[in-house]
Structures are given as C-alpha cells and as structure tokens.
C-alpha cells in the first residue's frame, strides 16, 4: 500500500476510447486499461448517454486493476492521487437537484453558429461553435424549455469529477473551452462575463453565468477527495479505498500538453485521434481575431493558440477496416494493430504529393474550413496514380490537412514554434505520421516513447503533480514535468524533408480545391 500511494491514476474519456493509466512517481507506466465506445447521433445531436459514461469508466478501471494484479501479484486498493479528463467543450446542463436537463451535446456538434458568431462579435474574442457558452446561448436563442432551469453547466470531465468528489470544479485548461479565461487571474474573464450577464438579463434570466459554471482550478490545486460513493462508482467491487486526493479535472487538450511536456512558451503539441488539434504556447497575444483559432490555456493558465479540427482518423480507420475485410476474404485474418502498421509503412513508398489522389476526411462539420456537416470523399482524376501506397499516404495527409490550414494562420501571425510534439494513435507507427506532420508544419516533430499513451498518461502526470504539491513540491508545472518526468525520456525527432514539404504543398492545393466538391456533396448528397 505504501508503494501504491506513490502512484497516480489518470482516466480520460476520449471520443472512441476510455482509457486509464497508472503511473509511478517518475512517470513510468505501471498498468493500463481501456474500454471502447462510440458516440450516437440522436435527435440532431452527437451524444453519449451518461449510463455509457459510467459503464465505460468502470470497465476501463476494472481492466487496469486486473493488469496491475497480473503484473504485481496484489490487488489495487489505493493510489496517491487521481484525475479525470475528457473531450473538451460541449453542453451538460443540470438543475439545482442534479438532474440532467438535456442530452450531452459533444464538441462534434456544429449547431451553434448564430450564438458563436454573436458572442464572437460581442466579446471581440473567438467563440467556436463547440464551446459550452455557445451551446448555452444557442439553447437560449432557440427558446429551449430546459434553459430556465439550468443551475449547473459543466463539461464531461467536470461532471465525472463532481460525481466522484461532490466538488463542482474544473481545471483552468478545460474551463477555457467553456468560457474565455483571463490568464492573469486564472479565472473567467470578468468583462466578458459581465457582458454575457447582460444578455442573460435581456432574455429574462436572473443571476450570473458564473454562478452556473464550475470553480476554476489551476494545476496542483486542491480539487477535493474521492468520496465513498465516488469510490463505488469507480470500483463497484469495493477494493478501492475512499479519501484519495483528486487533481483538477482537465480537457484532452491540457492532458496532451502534459503528456508531451509542452506547457512552456514556444512549445507545442499535436494530438491526433478521432479529432486532431495543435496547441502552441504563446509569447504574446495574436494581433487579430481568427475564427479558425481558439485561445485557451495550459493546465496552469498560460495562453495557448489552439487549432482544433473535428475530423482526423475516422475516414482513415474506415479504409483500414475495409482492407481488413479484403484480407479476410482472401483467408488472412490480420490483427488490426498489424494491419495499421503495414499500411502506414507502405505509405512511405507513395509519391510526395500522393499521385494526385485526394481524400476529404469530413465525417462531421469542420470549423476551420466553415462546414456545418461533412461527407467523406475520395477524389482523383483518370490520370492519378491510384496505388495502395498513394492511397494510404493521401489518407494520412488528409488527416493532417485541415490542421495545416490553421497552422498556416499562426505562421502568418509570426507565432514561433521551436518544435512540435506528436502524440495519440496516429503516431503509433514510428516515423510515418511524424514525418508527414513535419512536412505540413515545416518544423521539427518529436515523438516520445510515451506518445501512444496520450491524454490519460498526461492526466496521470497532472495527478502526480497534485501529489507532489501535497508533499511540499514548489516547482512550477513546466519545471516539474521537465525535471522529474521528461529529463530522461527517450524520443525521436524528425526534421522536414524538402521533397515532403513540396509534396504536401502540392497536395494542399488540390485538397483546398476538393473542398468545393465537399461543399456540393454536403448540400446535395
């Protein structure tokens, strides 16, 4: 038990997988467990039922506890600290009695255009459609019956944390995807809050939006402890003890920064899975409001430019699954992990510009390119070099293409990036997506050995930081990560190759042209 109390547990609810990671005090991964799930499109919204949230969390924890017992020969009964993270943004409203008032509307929905545009104009600050305040204001504009009863509005991570601890708090990074944050105070921006409260009053609502939002907590601060009821929610077997300290709940953007040691100025990371986003820690504010760029924060409150794209690997995954069916038809049952690795490696044999093969990977709307809905397309001409290598390379390029559009805006703003750190499932095959991202961003890209662990690993590190603070650590989050976790973590860095840069540039010209066909497909197909 003494050894278990030196560990930290991170649980992250991603778009397609709920994963739990147990880390040691040096950041080494001791055990892990996962549960696969999928969103549902119901009544016009992408959503997850909260019953599936708890089923998935319990299954992921059960698998982690089983992995721990198998490895170390003893049951997992406690940890030093734990934390919960999840996909950012979205809309989870509750009444004063804690009853859910509307379906969980995830980041993937693009149904808040009028609200987002109105708030962006009013605040002179970009409010993307997926932000919680945009969802809330859109519900008000729609005249939805439930809004008059909203007493608490939170994110998915904030909801789970609330149920585990009884505390209505949120990490500053996740909070910055609900409402704009003032990095000087690490709290909601006071002037924008007052402006929104005027809108509430005009709509006939009493009180402040602040009263309906979670309290903001920077990394390392007290965010409560695991209650007895919370322990049973997490582990119905009764083995896990209550009383474990929790760190502030965070969003997947914040955990990505922690997992890649990119919370210091001029550092950045790219998290690539179902969605893809880049986070770049800023030296100075951007000169212009860009609807394609979110302004959020690190887990300790520093300003960050975020390029968030709703679509990344969904279309790529569908094609890999199709090739798996072809292999099975020929009598070869290839494990999914092996199939991905083989197909990613064969893409390296493709032409730098993908032989004029152009997929558009939009399963849903895309804010960066201003689409409210999406249809995946594959475009080519009669003269395209339609080979397996070019097809696979083009799908990986497509997974990065919309992100590149946003990164090019940051380049025009003279935002300096010394290096990008890649993490998430897209980077699991060494040297492939990493090489292509270097060409797209035109900066060196590093992938560390822990890259495949992604957000839940980052959440475990943030929980570890909370534990360190409890034990008297006075290091900043950036110094803690650098000195105690990443000083000896091996990784590989790839610099952009000129032929890849030229090839990706040529691909992007065709990709942008293909968006006209995408718009026609959305409107008419």
| Gross geometry | globular
Read across the widest sheet, the strand sequence of neighbours is: 16-17-15-14-20-21-22
Provide the low-confidence segments as ranges.
none
Question: How many helix segments?
Answer: 15
Structural class: alpha/beta
Radius of gyration: 22 Å
| Biggest β-sheet description | 7 strands, mixed
Oligomeric description of these chains: single chain
Number of DSSP-assigned strands: 22
Mean pLDDT: 95
End-to-end distance, in Å? 59 Å
Q: Helix share of residues?
A: 25-40%
Approximately how much beta-strand content do the residues carry?
15-25%
Describe this structure in words.
By secondary structure, this protein is α/β, with parallel strands linked by helices. The protein is 38% helix and 18% strand. It has helices spanning 50-72, 113-123, 132-141, 156-165, 172-175, 190-202, 228-234, 252-259, 314-329, 336-347, 388-412, 433-441, 454-470, 477-485, 498-524, and strands spanning 8-13, 17-23, 29-36, 40-42, 45-47, 81-86, 92-94, 152-154, 169-171, 181-182, 187-188, 215-217, 250-251, 267-272, 276-281, 294-297, 303-309, 358-360, 377-379, 419-423, 445-448, 491-494. The strands form seven sheets. The protein has a seven-stranded mixed beta sheet, with helices on both faces. Strands 3-2-1-6-13 form a five-stranded mixed beta sheet. It has a two-stranded antiparallel ribbon with strand order 4-5. α2 (113-123) packs across α3 and α11 (388-412) packs parallel to α12. It is globular and about 65 Å long.
């Amino acid at each position: 038990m003494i050894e278990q109390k030196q560990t930290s547990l991170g649980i992250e609810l991603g778009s397609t997988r709920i994963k739990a990671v147990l880390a040691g005090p040096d950041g080494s991964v001791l055990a892990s467990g996962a549960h696969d799930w999928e969103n549902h499109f119901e009544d016009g919204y992408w959503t997850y039922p909260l019953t599936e949230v708890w089923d998935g969390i319990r299954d992921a924890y059960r698998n982690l506890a089983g992995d721990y017992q198998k490895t170390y020969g003893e049951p997992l009964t406690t940890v030093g600290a734990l934390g919960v993270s999840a996909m950012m943004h979205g809309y989870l409203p509750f009444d004063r009695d804690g009853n859910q008032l509307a379906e969980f509307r995830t980041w993937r929905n693009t149904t808040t255009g009028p609200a987002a545009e109105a708030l962006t104009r009013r605040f002179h600050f970009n409010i993307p459609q997926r932000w919680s305040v945009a969802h809330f204001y859109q519900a008000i504009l729609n005249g939805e019956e439930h809004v008059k009863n909203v007493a608490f509005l939170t994110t998915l991570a904030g909801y789970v944390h609330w149920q585990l601890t009884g505390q209505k708090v949120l990490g500053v990074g996740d909070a910055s995807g609900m409402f704009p944050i003032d990095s000087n105070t690490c709290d909601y921006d006071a002037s924008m809050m007052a402006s929104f409260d005027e809108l509430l009053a005009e709509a006939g609502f009493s009180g402040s939006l602040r009263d309906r939002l979670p309290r903001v907590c920077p990394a390392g601060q007290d965010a409560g402890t695991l209650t007895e009821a919370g322990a049973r929610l997490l582990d119905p077997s009764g083995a896990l003890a209550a009383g474990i300290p929790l760190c502030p709940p965070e969003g997947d953007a914040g955990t990505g920064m922690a997992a890649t040691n990119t919370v210091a100025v001029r550092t950045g990371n790219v998290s690539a899975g179902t969605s893809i986003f880049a986070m770049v820690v800023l030296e100075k504010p951007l000169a212009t409001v860009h609807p394609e760029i979110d302004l959020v924060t690190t887990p300790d409150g520093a300003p960050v430019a975020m390029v968030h794209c709703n679509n990344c690997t969904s279309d790529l995954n569908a094609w890999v699954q199709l090739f798996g069916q072809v292999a099975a038809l020929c009598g070869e049952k290839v494990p999914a992990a092996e199939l991905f690795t083989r197909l990613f490696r064969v893409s390296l044999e493709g032409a730098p510009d993908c032989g004029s093969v152009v997929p558009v990977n939009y399963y849903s709307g895309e804010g960066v390119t201003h689409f409210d809905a999406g249809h995946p397309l594959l475009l080519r001409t009669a003269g395209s070099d339609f080979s397996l290598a070019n097809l696979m390379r083009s799908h990986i390029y497509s997974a990065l293409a919309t992100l590149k559009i946003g990164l090019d805006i940051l380049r025009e703003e003279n935002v300096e990036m010394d290096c990008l750190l890649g993490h998430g499932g897209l980077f699991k095959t060494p040297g492939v997506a990493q090489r292509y991202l270097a060409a797209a961003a035109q900066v060196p890209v590093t992938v560390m050995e822990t890259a495949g662990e992604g957000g839940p690993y980052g959440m475990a590190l943030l929980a570890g930081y909370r534990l360190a603070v409890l034990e008297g650590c006075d290091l900043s989050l950036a110094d803690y990560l650098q000195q105690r976790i990443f000083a000896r973590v091996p990784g590989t860095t790839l610099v952009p190759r000129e032929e890849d840069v030229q090839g990706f540039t040529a691909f992007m010209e065709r990709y942008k042209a293909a968006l006209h066909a995408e718009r026609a497909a959305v409107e008419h197909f």
